Hints:
heterotrimer; B: alpha/beta; four-stranded antiparallel β-sheet; 10 strands; 37% helix; C: mainly alpha; two-stranded antiparallel sheet; 12 helices
Amino acid sequence: MTxxxxxxxxxxxxxxxxxxxxxxxxxxxxxPIFDERSFNLQxxxxxxxWYAILASSWNIIGGYAGQISFGHAAFLGMGAYVTxxxxxxxxxxxxxxxPIAGLVAAAYGVIVGVPTxxxxxxxxxxATIGVGEATRLFFTNFDDIFGVTLTKGxxxxxxxxxxxxxxxxxxxxxxxxxxxxxxxxxxxxxRGGRFGLGLFAxxxxxxxxxxxxxxxxxxxVLALAVSAFFAGSAGxxxxxxxxFLDPASMFGFDKSIALVLMPVVGGLGTVWGPVFGALLYxxxxxxxxxxxxxxxxxxxxxxxLLIVIVMFEPLGIAGLLGRSTKYARAxxxxxxxxx
Amino acid sequence: MTGGEPILIGRGVxxxxxxxxxxxxxxxxxxxxxxxxxxxxxxxGKTTLFRLLSGxxxxxxxxxxxxxxxxxxxxxxxxxxxxxxxxxxIVRPFVDMTVEKNVLVGVLYGRSGLRGSAADAEVDRILELxxxxxxxxxxxxxxxxxxxxxxxxxxxxxxxxxxxxxxEVAAGLNPTESARIVELIRRIRDSGVSIVMVxxxxxxxxxxxxxxxxxxxxxxxxxxxxxxxxxDPAVIKAYLGERAVAS
Amino acid sequence: xxxxxxxxSALLVAGLYATMSxxxxxxxxxxxxxxxxxxxxxxxxxxxxxxxxxxxxxxxLLSIVVTAPLFFLVGALIERLFVRRVLGEKPVISxxxxxxxxxxxxxxxxxxxxxxDVRSVRPAYxxxxxxxxxxxxxxxxxxxxxxxxxxxxxxxxxxRRTFLGRAIRALAQDRDACRLAGIDAQRVSMIAxxxxxxxxxxxxxxLTLVFAFDxxxxxxxxxxxxxxxxxxxxxxxxxxVAVASFVLAAAENLTVTLSKPxxxxxVSFVLxxxxxxxxxxxxxxxxxxxxxx
Lengths: 339, 247, 293
C-alpha cells in the first residue's frame, strides 16, 4: 500500500517539476513582448538561463556520476568556436550550427572520457585540468598551428558582421529558452530513470555497481557526452548573443570556478540545485564586479563559500531547503534517500 | 539430489601469482539447482578459485565455461550479464540508496530486461523472498549486518543469475541470523538458481550443500556429499585433522 | 653534444619536479586523495622565501629551514581541520574541498600581494655557471637539484628506517590491516599530509631560484606537470615519481631542443594523455606486471 502510494506521488512530483519548467519558459518567453526597448531584462534572462544550462550540464557528470570536471570550459569553448568558425567562414546560419556545436563538444567529451573514465581513481579530474588548459592553448594558437586566419588568437573573432548571416537578439532569446527546457527535461529524465540510478550507483561504489551488472565505464562516458553536448550548445548560444569570441572569455579561470561553484552551491546531484546556483551566482557576480574593484576578491569569497558548503551542507541550497519543509524536500530530492 | 545438468564447468583451472600456484589444475562441475560448497583450510586456494569463477581474476591456465561459453577475461558487469552474480565477503550496499533502489539497480542492469512497473514488481518479489520488504525504504547505511548481507544477496538475485556465488555470507552472524540466511539460500536454490558458496561456518555449509568440494594447497582433494566428505580420510587428514571438532 | 647537454639539464630540472611531486604521491598513497592544494602551498612557500630574502637577506636555499617546518604545520592543520572531516564521504567531496582551499590560497595571495606583480629572488650567485668540458651548467640549477636530492634521500631513509615512516608506508598499503595492528591511522594521516605539504614548501623555496613568479604563474603549469608525473609514476609509487620526473623533464628538454620552445608546456599534457591511453596505472603497474608475468 505504501509502495503504491509512493509510486503515485512520484508521478505527480515529476509532472509538477515539468510544469515548473514550462511556466519558467513561458514567463521568460513573454519578456521580449513587454520589453521591446529595454534590453537589460533580456540580458539578465539570457545569462540566468545560460548559467543554469551550464550548471545543469556540469551536474550530470559531476553530481550524478560523481566525476569532477575542472575543465568543463573546454566543452563550452569548443561549442562556441565551432559556431564561430562555421558562422564566420562557411556563412552558415548560426542557429543551424547549434546542434553541430553540441555534437562536436560531445565527441570531444568521448575522446577525453574513454581513456580516463575506464580507470578507477581520480584520473578524470586530473585529466580535465590538463584538457581545459590544452583546449585554451589550442584555440589561442589555432591559426599558427593550421596556418590560417580563423580564430585570430588572443584578439578573438567578431561575428555577425560583413557578409555573415545575421541573427536578432529575440531569436537568440527564444533559442536559449528552448535549450534551457531541453536541458532541464533531460536532467529530470536522467535523475528519475534507469540511467540516473546507474550513475548514482557508480557514484557510491563503483565496484559494487559493476558486480550488480552496471557497465560503469560506458555509463560514465555517456554521461560526459550528454554533459558536454549541453555545455557545447551553450557555447554556441554565447557566440550568437555576444557576437564576439576570444580565449579569455571562454576559457578564463573565472569560468572554471563558476562551473564548479554553481552546482555545488545549489546542490550537487539534485535536479534543481544547479538552477539555484545559477540564480545566485549571476546576480552576485554581476554586482560584485561592479562594486568591488579588486579582481581577486570575488574568487577568494567563492573559495571560502566552497569550503563552507562542502564541510557543512554538501547538498547546498537544495539541502537547506530540503531540511526546511516537506514539499521543498520532495522537489529537491524526488527520490527519497538518494543524492 | 536436486542437481540437473552441469552448467558451470571448470577444466584444469590454474592460477599463478608470480612463482606461487594458488589454484592448480582444478576440475569442477556445478549442476543446475545445486548448492555447491567450497571448503578448505586457510591458503587452500578457495578464495582464489571463487574469484576466478566471479571473473575478478582471469585464469592462467584451463577454462571456465557457463553453459559452454568461456567466462575468462571478461569484466565484472559482462560476467554478470552472462548469468553469474556475486556477493562480496565484505558487504557493500549502496549506502545512500534505499533497500528498494539497491535491488532495483540489480533488476534494471541485470539480465531480466524488465523496465518500469514490471521491474518494480520484480523488486517486490525479491524483497519478499529475502524478507527485506519491511525495510524497503531504509537507507543502505542504516541496515544491520545481517540485513546488509541479505541485501547483498537480494541485489545479486535482482540481476536474474543462473549461478549465484556467495562469499562467506554467514560469517559474522549469530546463530539465529545464520539460520535465517540458510533458509533463504535454500529458497533461492528451489527457485531454480545454482549456488556456489565459500563458507567458514561449517554448520551452514554442511547442512546446506548438495555437494562439497574440498581444496588443499591449490588442489582438489575431495568431492562428494556432506556425509561422504565428513568421512573422507584425505579430508580428515588435511582439514578436519587440524581442527578435530569442525562445527 | 646537444643531446648530452639536454639530458643533464633534464636531470637538474627533474630534481625540482620530483620534490614538488613526492608530496602528492605520499598523500595519495596514505589517504587516496589528490592534494589539489599542493600548488597553493608551493606558491605560499615561494612568497615566504621571497620576503625572507628581501627583509633579512636569507638565502633561498637556507630558507628551507623555515619553509619546511612552517608548511608541515600548515599541511597538518589542513588535514586536521578540513580533510579529516570529509574522509568518509565520496571522493568528490574531498576534491571539491581541496579545490576550495587552493582557490582561497591563490586568490588570497593575489589579493594580498597585488596579483600581477612578478617577483624574483636574485642572490649574488644567480649568474654563475660551472663548466664541465663543453657543458655549461647554471649554478642555481645545480644547487636546486642537489638540495632536492638530499631532501628526497632523507625522506626515503625516514620512510624506511623509522617507526613513523614504516607506519606511513604500511598505511599506504592496507588501511584496514593497520587499524587492526594498532596504528593510529588518523595521526599518521595528519603527519603524512604535513610531510607532503612540507615537500611542496621546499619545492616552493627552491623554485624561486629558477623561476620568476606571481600567485598564479608558474604554479598552475607546475601543478599540471606534477599531476602528469604522479600519473606516469603510478599515483602512489615513490620511485615511480623519481623516474617519471626525469622522463617528463627529458621529454620537455628534447622538445625544446629539437623543435619549438613554446611547445614545452604542451609536452606534459601530451604525456599525460599518452600515459592514460597506453599504460594506465603508470610505470608502477608496468613494473608490477613484468614481475608477475
